[in-house]
Specification:
The protein has 4 helices and 2 strands. It has 133 residues and is mainly alpha-helical.
């Protein structure tokens, strides 16, 4: 078994920090470019900040890395579950892209949140197997 688990070419604390940065940049870009007056346009950043901090702390504080990564995956789950609101748009009159920016952000949260949680779960399984060996 390898020394470190990697997901999409990165160790999980680095992947976690990068995902947090991505969410913050997404929210910043869409809020500024589309001049959003709604606090909800900042939701990806509100989820991304604790993910970023958890990823950095997992890298810095290796003794508590497991704790920080579990905190990060909880926020990743929030991203995924919050992004599922995209599908509620199919029941509305305008469809899921009635508000294109909000729909795109919700879909992004659902997809990237699912990928992140999948990576975390695979990492947790790998760690458990590594400890058993």
């Amino acid at each position: 078994m390898e020394d470190k688990f990697t997901f999409m070419g990165a160790e999980m604390p680095n992947f976690t920090a990068a995902y947090g940065i991505f969410l913050i940049m997404w929210a910043t870009f869409f809020s500024i470019v589309f001049e959003s007056q709604s606090i909800t346009s900042w939701i990806p950043a509100m989820i991304g900040a604790p993910i970023l901090i958890s990823g950095l702390l997992a890298k810095i504080d290796s003794a508590r890395s497991k704790l920080w990564m579990h905190i990060a995956v909880i926020f990743g789950l929030f991203a995924f579950l919050g992004g599922l609101d995209f599908f509620r748009g199919f029941a509305s009159d305008g469809g899921p892209f009635a508000n294109l920016v909000a729909g795109a952000s919700k879909l992004m949260l659902a997809v990237t949140g699912a990928v992140f949680v999948l990576g975390c779960v695979k990492s947790f399984i790998w760690a458990r197997k590594a400890r058993a060996e």
